[in-house]
Design the sequence.
C-alpha cells in the first residue's frame, strides 16, 4: 500500500492577507477617530480651570480697589451729606461718568508703574494673545511666570465695567453698583465670561 508523503500546507492566501489588512485599516481608522477627539476634550477642562483661576484672580484684584476715583477716605461718591439734592458741597463728589471709565493718563497696569486704584480703571483692559499688550500681568504689572515659563501663554483677557444699580445684568444710569465683566479666551479659542458686582460702599 503506497504511503502519501506529501505534506499538507496551511497558511493565508494573498487575497486573505489583503482582506485582513483592509479590515485592520478600517478598524484602526474607527478607533483613532474615537480616541483623538477624546484626547482634545480632555485638555479643554484643564484650560477651563486655568481660565477660571485667572478670572477669579483678576476679579478679586478689581473688587479690592476703591469703588470710584471720587470716593475719598470715608466718603463715598454720590453721598449727599446735607441732603440738598446735589454733590457740589464740601466733602461731596459725584461718581465718575460712564464715559470717563478707564485709566487716567497717569495710570498704568505694567511693571513697574502698576497703579490702578479704583474699579473703573480696569474698563477696557485687554491683555494676552491678540492684544497690543500680549502678556497677562499680575496686579504689580509683572509677568506671571512658573519655572521661567509664562503661566498664561496663549490666553487673553478683557474687562468691561459699567453701572448696573438694579443688578439685572443690563447697563443703566443707577450709579450705586458697578457690573464687572471679565472675558477669558483659552488657547483653543473658547471664551468664558465671568461677572461680579461692586457696590458703592
Sequence:
Amino acid at each position: 500500500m503506497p504511503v502519501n508523503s506529501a505534506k499538507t500546507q496551511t497558511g493565508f492566501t494573498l487575497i486573505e492577507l489583503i482582506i485582513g489588512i483592509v479590515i485592520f485599516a478600517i478598524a484602526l481608522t474607527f478607533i483613532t477617530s474615537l480616541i483623538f477627539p477624546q484626547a482634545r476634550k480632555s485638555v479643554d477642562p484643564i484650560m477651563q480651570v486655568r481660565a477660571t483661576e485667572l478670572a477669579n484672580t483678576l476679579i478679586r484684584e478689581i473688587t479690592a480697589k476703591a469703588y470710584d476715583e471720587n470716593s475719598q477716605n470715608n466718603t463715598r461718591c454720590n453721598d449727599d451729606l446735607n441732603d440738598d439734592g446735589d454733590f457740589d458741597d464740601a466733602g461731596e463728589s459725584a461718581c465718575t461718568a460712564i464715559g470717563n471709565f478707564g485709566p487716567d493718563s497717569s495710570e498704568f497696569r505694567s511693571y513697574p508703574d502698576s497703579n490702578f486704584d479704583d474699579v473703573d480703571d480696569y474698563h477696557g483692559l485687554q491683555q494676552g494673545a491678540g492684544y497690543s499688550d500680549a502678556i497677562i500681568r499680575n496686579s504689580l504689572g509683572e509677568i506671571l511666570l512658573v519655572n521661567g515659563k509664562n503661566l498664561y501663554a496663549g490666553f487673553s483677557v478683557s474687562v468691561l465695567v459699567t453701572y448696573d444699580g438694579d443688578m439685572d445684568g443690563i447697563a443703566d444710569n443707577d450709579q450705586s453698583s458697578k457690573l464687572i465683566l471679565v472675558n477669558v479666551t483659552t488657547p483653543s479659542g473658547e471664551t468664558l465670561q465671568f461677572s461680579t458686582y461692586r457696590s458703592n460702599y
In short: The chain is about 25% helix and 15% strand. Strands lie at 126-128, 145-146, 149-150, 156-163, 177-185, 191-199. The mean pLDDT is 87.
